[in-house]
Amino acid sequence: MRPATKRLALGLATLALALAPALPSPASAETAAPQTTAPQTAAHPGKHKPDNLRELARKLGIHIGTAVDVTALAEEDDYRRVLNREFTHITAENAMKWESVEPERGVYNWEGADAVVENARRNHQRVRGHTLVWHNQLPAWLTQGVESGEIDAAELRAILRDHIKKEVGRYRGKIRAWDVANEVIDDDGNMRQSIWLTHLGPGYIADAFRWARQADPHAKLYLNDYNLEWDTDKIDAYLNLVKQLQAQRVPLDGMGFQGHLGIQYDYPGDFPNVMRKFTDLGLEVAITEADARMVLPVTPEKLARQAEFFRDMLKTCAANRRCTEFTVWGFTDRHSWVPEWFEGEGAATPMDENLAPKPAYTAMLGVRRF
Ligand code: G3I
Question: What Gene3D superfamilies does the annotation carry (predicted)?
Answer without folding.
Answer: Glycosidases
